[in-house]
Design a protein that fits this description.
By secondary structure, the protein is mainly alpha-helical. Helix content is about 40%, strand content about 5%.
Length: about 120
């Protein structure tokens, strides 16, 4: 893993408590795997990819697992079966586009033999 809990702490602006550390490490591992899947096996680790992984981890930390919606007036919380935010955000995908392998095609020219110009010895 090229992102550490310290990297997330610096960007988050607060200390990650010991109780929270395993969750952050798991999020780092998950986000790194999603970046690898999105960019392909040959992507290069850079400051840009590190920033994306850290941003996704911080985004995931801001969402409580299982909470679908909250309402402040009259305190209403709606729970779902699981949080659906653990995927790359559209902003992350846009940032990672430059690190994906580009698909392109190149024209291939096939040399055609010129049979008419071949002189065969002993032939007519």
């Amino acid at each position: 893993m090229f992102v550490t809990v310290d990297d997330v702490e610096v960007r988050l602006g607060r200390k990650i408590e010991d109780v929270e550390r395993p969750r952050v490490e798991a999020f780092i591992e998950d986000a790194s795997a999603l970046v690898l899947d999105y960019c392909g096996s040959g992507f290069r680790e850079s400051a840009g990819t590190k920033a994306v992984v850290c941003a996704e981890v911080i985004r995931w930390l801001a969402v409580q697992p299982g909470i679908v919606s909250e309402k402040v007036g009259d305190i209403q919380v709606e729970f779902g079966t699981s949080a659906t935010t653990q995927s790359l955000s559209p902003a992350a995908r846009a940032s990672l586009k430059r690190y994906r392998k580009k698909l392109s095609s190149i024209p291939l020219a096939i040399d055609q033999p010129k049979w008419d110009a071949v002189i065969v010895e002993g032939g007519r």
